[in-house]
Write a structure and sequence with these properties.
By secondary structure, the chain is mostly helical. It is built from 19 helices and no strands. The longest helix is centred in the N-terminal third of the chain and has 38 residues.
Length: 461
C-alpha cells in the first residue's frame, strides 16, 4: 500500500482530521477573499454606488463560476471513487476529459454573457447610476471567467489528488496577487474616481484568477507526484453527465444563492436605495467567509468518504461521519460567536465613515450571523451525499434549502414581523434579515431526515 493510500484509509482522530482538511478550508477561504478585498477597496475609494454596483453584478459572475464547482465536486467524487476501486487509468482519463470539457464550456459561457450583459443587468434592476460601474467591472472580468471556473474546479481535485497543501499555496499566491493589485490599482491609481476603482478591482481579480486557474492547470499537465495528471482523455458522455448530476447540488446552491441575492438586493433597493444594497453586500461578504469555511471542510473531507466508500471500508466511514459532525458543529458555533463579536469592525471596513450605512450594516449582520449556527449541517449533508455519488439527494437538500426555504421565509417572515411587532416598516425590515435564520433552521431538519433515512444504505452510522 503506497503512502497516499495509507493516508486515505487511516483511522483519523479528531485532531488529525482537522489538520487534514485545514489546507482545503484555508484555500477556499482565501479564494472567497477576492471579492471581499475588492469590496473593501471599492467601498472606501469608489463610494457606496460603485460598491453597490459590483454587488449587483456578483450574482451573474457566481452563476457561471458555479459550473466549476459542479465539475469539481461531482467529478472529484467520481474520480475518487474509481481510484478507491483501483482503476487509476480510468480515473486519469476521466479527470482529463472533465478538465478539457470545462475549459470549452467556460469559453462559451463567457462569450454568451458578454453578448447578453446589458439586458441581463436591466433584468436585475440595476439603476441608471449603477449601470456604468456594472459594465466597467464586467467587461474586464467576463473574459477571465474560465479561470474562475478552473480555480474552483482544481480546489476539489487537488484534495482528491492528496495535495491540499499545494492548493493552499496556489491560493495564497493568487490572493496576494489580488490584494496587491487592489492596493495599487484602486488604492493609489483610482484617485477617488469610482469608474477607475471598479476597473482596478476587476483587473486585480483577473490577476489572482490567472494564478489560481492557470498554475494548477500547468501543474497537472506536468509530471508530478500526485495521484492525478492531465493526459489523454477518456471521452465518456455518460460519466460527464453523472459527474455533473452528482455535482449539481453545488451548482444549484450557487445559482439559488445568486437568485436569493437578487431578491434581497431588490428588496433593500426598494426599501432604502443604494445604501440597502451596500449594507446587504457587506453582510453577504461576511456570509461568504462562513460559507467558504464550511464548503472547504466539505471539499477536504469528501475524498475520504468517496475513497473509503469505493473501497468498502465501513469502519472508516463511521469514524469519519462521527468526527465530521463534531467538527462542523464546533466550527458553526465558533464562527457565530466570533463574527457576532466582530460585527462592528467588519461593518466599519465597508462603511467608509458613513454613520447611517454603518448602523444598518451592524444591525443586519448581528441578526444574519445567527444563521451560521445552522448553515454547517446542511452544507455537510449535501456534500456527504455528493461524495457517495448520490446527486439526487444532494441536489434536493441544496435546492430546497437555498431556493424553496429561502423564498418561503423571505415572503412570510417580514409579514409576520410586520403584524406581530406593531405593523411598522422597521419591523418588516428586520423580518427580512431574520428570514434567512428561519430558512437555515428548516434546512437542518430536512438534512437530518435524509441522514437518518440513508445511514444503513451507506453504512456511515
Amino acid at each position: 500500500m503506497d503512502t497516499e493510500t495509507k493516508i486515505l484509509t487511516q483511522k483519523f482522530t479528531l485532531g488529525k482530521l482537522f489538520v487534514y482538511v485545514f489546507p482545503t478550508i484555508f484555500s477556499i477561504l482565501l479564494a472567497s477573499l477576492y471579492s471581499i478585498v475588492d469590496g473593501i477597496f471599492v467601498s472606501n475609494f469608489g463610494g457606496t454606488t460603485a460598491f453597490a454596483a459590483i454587488n449587483q453584478v456578483a450574482p451573474l459572475i457566481m452563476i457561471i463560476a458555479a459550473i466549476g464547482f459542479m465539475f469539481g465536486t461531482g467529478g472529484s467524487a467520481l474520480v475518487g471513487k474509481i481510484l478507491g476501486e483501483g482503476d487509476k487509468e480510468k480515473a486519469l482519463g476521466l479527470f482529463s476529459f472533465f478538465t478539457y470539457a470545462l475549459i470549452i464550456i467556460g469559453i462559451i459561457c463567457s462569450t454568451l454573457l458578454w453578448i447578453f450583459l446589458d439586458p441581463l443587468l436591466d433584468a436585475l434592476g440595476v439603476t441608471e447610476t449603477m449601470m456604468p460601474f456594472c459594465i466597467a467591472y464586467s467587461h474586464i472580468l467576463i473574459p477571465a471567467l474560465t479561470l474562475f471556473m478552473l480555480q474552483f474546479y482544481f480546489q476539489s481535485f487537488l484534495a482528491t489528488a492528496k495535495k491540499p497543501k499545494l492548493g493552499l499555496g496556489f491560493t495564497i499566491i493568487a490572493g496576494l496577487t489580488n490584494t496587491i493589485g487592489d492596493a495599487i490599482l484602486v488604492g493609489v491609481f483610482s484617485q477617488g474616481d469610482p469608474t477607475k476603482a471598479v476597473q482596478g478591482a476587476a483587473i486585480a481579480t483577473v490577476g489572482g484568477l490567472f494564478v489560481g486557474g492557470i498554475i494548477p492547470l500547468i501543474y497537472f499537465f506536468s509530471k508530478n507526484t500526485s495521484l492525478l495528471r492531465l493526459g489523454k482523455p477518456i471521452a465518456n458522455a455518460l460519466a460527464l453527465a453523472k459527474a455533473c448530476g452528482n455535482g449539481s447540488s453545488e451548482f444549484f446552491t450557487n445559482i439559488s444563492g445568486s437568485i436569493i441575492n437578487v431578491v434581497y438586493n431588490s428588496l433593500f433597493l426598494y426599501m432604502i436605495g443604494d445604501m440597502g444594497v451596500a449594507a446587504y453586500g457587506t453582510v453577504g461578504y461576511v456570509n461568504s467567509i462562513f460559507t467558504a469555511i464550511a464548503s472547504g471542510f466539505v471539499l477536504g473531507i469528501s475524498p475520504l468518504f468517496s475513497y473509503n466508500y469505493g473501497a468498502g471500508n465501513t469502519d472508516n466511514l463511521k469514524n469519519l461521519y462521527k468526527k465530521s459532525m463534531t467538527l462542523i458543529i464546533t466550527i458553526s458555533v465558533a464562527a457565530t460567536i466570533i463574527i457576532e463579536l466582530l460585527s462592528h469592525p467588519l461593518s466599519a471596513a465597508f462603511a467608509h465613515g458613513d454613520a447611517d450605512l454603518m448602523q444598518i450594516t451592524v444591525d443586519g449582520l448581528s441578526i444574519f450571523t445567527l444563521s451560521f449556527l445552522f448553515k454547517g449541517i446542511p452544507t455537510f449533508g449535501s456534500g456527504l451525499f455528493t461524495a457517495f455519488n448520490n446527486g439526487l439527494i444532494s441536489g434536493v437538500i441544496s435546492v430546497v434549502r437555498t431556493l424553496v426555504f429561502n423564498m418561503a421565509t423571505i415572503i412570510t417572515i417580514p409579514v409576520v414581523f410586520f403584524y406581530a411587532f406593531g405593523s411598522s416598516y422597521e419591523a418588516a425590515f428586520y423580518g427580512v434579515w431574520y428570514s434567512v435564520v428561519f430558512s437555515e433552521l428548516l434546512a437542518v431538519f430536512m438534512t437530518f431526515f435524509f441522514l437518518r433515512r440513508n445511514r444503513k444504505k451507506y453504512q456511515y452510522a
